[in-house]
Each structure stands twice: as structure tokens, then as C-alpha cells.
Amino acid sequence: MRWPLGRPTTVRTRIVALALAPAVALMALWGFAMVSVTAELRALIRVQGVYDDFGTPVDTAVGQIQIERRMSAAYLGGGTDAASAGELLGQQRRTDRVVDAMRLAIRDGDRDRLTARQRQALDAMVTATGRLDGLRRRVLTRRIGWDQAVQQYSALVTPAFDVQSTLTALQAGQLARETQTVFELVRVREFVSREDALVTGARAAGTTLTARQYGALTQAVEDRRVFQETYVPDLPSDSRALFEDFQRGDLYRSLTRGEDALLRAGAGGASRAVAAGDWRSTIDRIVKRYRDLCTEAGDNSAARGRAFAYHELTKAAVAGGAGLIAVALSLGLAVRGARRISRRLEALRDAADVLTTRQLPDVMRRLGAGEEVDAAAEAPPLPAGAVRDDEIGQVARSFNTARLAAVEAAVKQATLRRGLFAVLLNIARRNQALVHRQLKLVDTLERRTEDPDILRELFRIDHLTTRMRRHAESLIILSGAAPGRRWRRPVPVAQVVASAVGEIEDYTRVVVPPMPKAAIAADAVADVVHLIAELLENATVFSPPHTQVTLRTGHAEGGFVLEIDDRGLGLDADARAEARRTLTDPDAFDPTRHDRLGLYVVGRLAARHGIDVSLRDSPYGGTTAVVLLPEPVLADAEPPARAERHGRRRDTVPAPPEERAEARPLPARKRTAPAPDDTPPALPARTRGTRPAAPAAPAPAPALPTRTRQASIAPRLRDEPRPPGDTPRREIDADEMRAIFGAFQRGLDQGRKGLPTRPDAPDETVTTTHADEGTDTDDAR
Question: Which of 245, 298, 424, 611 is the most exposed place for a label (fewest CB within 10 A)?
Fold first, then answer.
């Protein structure tokens, strides 16, 4: 580093050179100004302002309390004079007004200007005046002696002198000592007022003073004389002259003669030592004169403080002007050098902004789309002019390295993520294949057994396997692929909802109403089933287990609507907004948010088919998921009379009116049963209490197997059928409901397996079943 012999060549030396000149100038000039001006000037300004706001109200309150003290002593020492009592009450009201004003000033004033010691003194004064009411009650009821009243009133006044002392403690030097002397002389007025109260009480009582009462009187006289003799000589000449002229006057000599008479009379004659009229006149004028003297002395001190402040402000102005000139020169030098540095730093800033706002997002977008990205081409180095040998050039080189490393890391991360998704997809495909094989095995076992207990357990295994298949498909969807299940023909909405309900754990809690006539397009069946199942799963998981999940459906403008209501605790505003972002932007998949995997799956499935999924507050207190299936997802429902036209008729078991009007959980709904005909069924229907009859001749199973109600339930779970008009049906326990629903689900799955039709039915008369739809195209390899 050649500086100061030559021009600085590094950023550090330039910053030192630019900052040193204004720093030295400011430190020298403003240091002088701060030392010479602010020390006493700020203290003076604070003392004057603080005393005006807090000290003056306290001093006014003290004057009224002193008057009330004298009148209370006269009231207690004399008889029950109504006039004196009225005068005392009037004085108490005047005292209350000034005390309330003092409390308001202390409470609402700018207490931030006060020190902790000053706040403590002011709070003590407020606390002391709070004892006025209790003291007044004792005075008015004469439960206290006049000398005790004088003593307790004096205790109320004492904290005021602490307030005045602490308010002047902010000053320094001669001005502080002068102000403190003035405030000490304020005590002289208190001593004279205390003498007056004691003499008034003794005269009103007309008795010989006790030793304690006489001691209090003599102590007040001695304190007044000592304070005046001690502090008057310390006053400045102008204020001292005021007090000396007062002491040489007739009024002061009248005061001293009266005090001398009180001291000579002793305890026995003090109450009659001075004439009442002369003493009253003298004391009133003395108290007023002391108040005027202290005010004039304070004004003199304030005038000297203002003169001192103006002098110091003049010095500060001169110093400030010189400092401004120095600062202007320093700034001129600093700006010239700062421009050079700022241009280079701005170039680095712009390059960093481009990297974070355009380059990296564009690279991530292209990597997400599967494009190949060249890291070196996407992160070119900065121009050679921005890369020099100083510190900024070193930062530029580091930035080039960091930018290239960031792009390379993004490429590696995207490659790793694609590989991870491929591994997860492969595992999911394998699991899916195993699940399908397990379903086929369970189906085979169900066909071979006739034991209701074993069938119930097989149905549970079948239900668990169906849920496993959905979870495997969720993993495939999150990996970016599509599940392998395909349908060749549209499927009614009722069957789609039934399949979705059968793929969740607590399907018995789902209340499914009668479905309108609508169908789902073949290429969307699997995804719609999965989407509805995920929403139903969320509704059952996040609501109390004893509540129901209600599903409502209906046609709407632009599509078909399904509403899923749960009765949980619902979502707050932040959680609902986050869930909506997950549904509307499923590509922003965050693996760390494992609690939202179902919503990510729903969002991707909805985006694939243009399905609108929204969340809102449920009328049951939970959350309502609204699914709007657009027209492209829907298809024409198959005419219900098709099977009848071809010779196959289905009769519906009638339900009571109240059951038809009310939506009930799906497993408890009435089922359709085939009408009796002469053709023996492929899967024998079991009736209550009998073994299933063997078919007359071996025949293949029908395309969509049907079961008689309660035929697949253990005998102990069956109930007697009731006519539609009978009493309400009995409650069904959870195991029986699962068994019923398992039988229903098994029938649907058997339909998907493609069972052959009856041999005596012509090919063109076969009713459309899931045998035409449930083709699985997954490849587990």
C-alpha cells in the first residue's frame, strides 16, 4: 500500500482516504461543540422546561397545603365553631383543585425527560398527597390533636423539597449551585408557615404548650434563621441584595421580634406571647414576601441561564459553520472517489440481480421441462473491465465462480431429482403390480370360500389392498407419471363415488346421497376416483371419529359438482391459503411438506383434467371441498332401460319414504336385486339360514355379479326383513357395515375382472359392465 505517499490502489485504502478527512474534521469541530455547548446548555434547557412542567404545579400545591395546615390547627385548637369549619372546608376544596392539577401534570407530562430519581420523587409526592383525605377526616371529626395535625401536614409537604432538589440536579457549575441555593431558601417559607400553624393552634387551644409542642415551635424558628443565614450569602449579588434589603426592613424586624417573644415566653406563655392581630398581619406579609423574593431570585437565575444559553449557541453556530465547510470539502472528495467505486459495485449488483431474477429461474424452468442445459454457456464470466486486481475485482472473480457453481448445482440437482423420481416411479410400479396380484389372489380366495367369517376377513384384506393400490398410485402421480388403470367406456357417477368411498379407511362415516344421472368419461374415471378418494380421506382423518362426512352432488353450469363436508376444526385463514396454493400450483411439489401429499395429488389430478377444486368453511364447522367436474370430463349416462330392452330386467327393492328422502351412509343403502327368472345364476345367491343351492348345470358367472341382501353376512349378523311401513330399521354395528360394504365393493371389483356372460344371452344383449372398463396397463418392470 503506497498511500499516503502515492495514490491508493486498493478499495480499503480508498475508503480510508475518503472517510478520514470528514471524520477528522467532524470529530474535531463537533467534539469541541459538544464539550463546550451541550454539557451546560442541555442541562439548563432541561431544568427550565422540566421545572415549568413539574416543579411549578408542585410548588403551587405546597402553598395551598400550608394554608390548610394553619386553618386545621386553628379548627382543632378552638371550639366547635361553624364558621371556622366552613372556612376549612372551603380551603380544602381549593387545595383539592391544585393537587388534582399537580397529579395531572405528573401523570400526563413528558416523563421521558425525567431521570429515574426524578420520577421517584414525583411519585412520592403524589403518594403523600393521597393521604390528605384520611387526615382531613380525622381533623373534621376531631380525632387528632392540633399539634399532630401540624406534624402530619408537614410530612405531606416534605417530599416537595426532594422534588425541587432533584429537578435542579441536572445543572452543572455555578448556575446549578445558584439555582440550588434559591430552592433551599424556599424552605424558609415553609418554616415560617410551620411557625404560623403552631402559634395559631396554641392560641386557639389557649392552654400551656407541652414540651413536644414547644420543641416543634422552637425548632421551626431556629431552622428558619439557620437556613436564611446560611444560603443568603451564597446568592448572586443581585439576588442577595434583594434578601439583604428585606432583612433590613421593618417587616423582617417584626418577624424576629415576634419569634424572640415566643422563645422568651416558654411553653407556658407561648400561646399569649404575641398579639393575634399583629402576628397574623406580619406572617401573611412575610410569607408573601418570601414567595416574591424566591420568585425574583429564580427569574434572575433564569435570565442568566438564557444569556449563557445564547452565548453557547453563538459558539455552537460558529463551530457548526466551520464544520459545515469542512464537511463540504470532505464530501466533495468522497463523492469523487465514491462514484468510481459505485459504478463497479453497481455492475456487480446488476449481474447478481440478473442471476437471481432471470438466469437461475430460467435454468430451473428448462431443467424442470427436461431440457439439457450447458452450465458454462448459461453462466458466462463478467467482462474483463470489471475484473481487476483490487478487492472489487476479486469479488467479481468470486462472483463468476459462484454463478457457475450455482448453475452447475442446479443442473446436478435436477438430474438427481429426475433420477430419484425415476427410482420412486419404478418402486411404485412394482408395488402396484404386487397389489394387483394380491387383489387377484384375494378374489380367488373369496370365490372358493363359503364361510362368512372368512369372507369378512377377506373383505377387510381386500379393502386394505385397495387402499394400498391408491397409495401406490399417489406415488406414481407425484413422480410425474399416470396410473396404469384404464376404462374403455364411461362409468356412472354413482359407481365412481362408490369406488372412491371404498378406497378410504373410514368409509362407514361417509354419507352418500342418491346420485343424479351422470357419467364420467372413460379416460378420466381412474383420476376422478383417486381425486375424490383423497378428499374423502382428508375429511375423515381431520374430523372426529364419531362424526360423519357428508357428500352432496348436483349439476351446475359448466359441469357437475361434488361437495364434501367434514365436521372437524376447520382451517384458519393462513392454512386455507396455503392449501389453495397447493391445489392451484401442484408442480411446486415440496417433499418436506409430507402433511400435504394428498393435496398435491389432488392438485395434479385436477390440473390434468381441468377440474376445479376449492375449499371453504363448512356449515358443520369444518371444511367443505367443492369439486367442479367440467364438461370434457363428463359423458352421457347409459340409458337405464337398456338391459330391459335386451331381455334382462332388474327390480328395485322399495325403500320407506323416509329412507328415500334422507341421505344415509353408503353401506346401509338398499341394493338392487335381480328379478327371478328361469336361468340359474352363475354365482348362487345365498338366503338367510340355508346353504347356497348348487346350480342346475355348470354355467359361467354373469357380467356384473349380484348378491341378495345379507346373503354374505354371518347368520348371527342377519336381521329379519321389515315391510316398508314398519318401525325404523335397527342400528347396524361397525363390523356388519364393513362386511356389507366389502361385499358391495367386491361385486364391483369382480365386475372389473371381466367375468363371462350367460351362455343363453346373445352377445349384443350383454349389459355394459366394468368388465369393459377395468383394464390395467401398468408395467412394473
Answer: 245
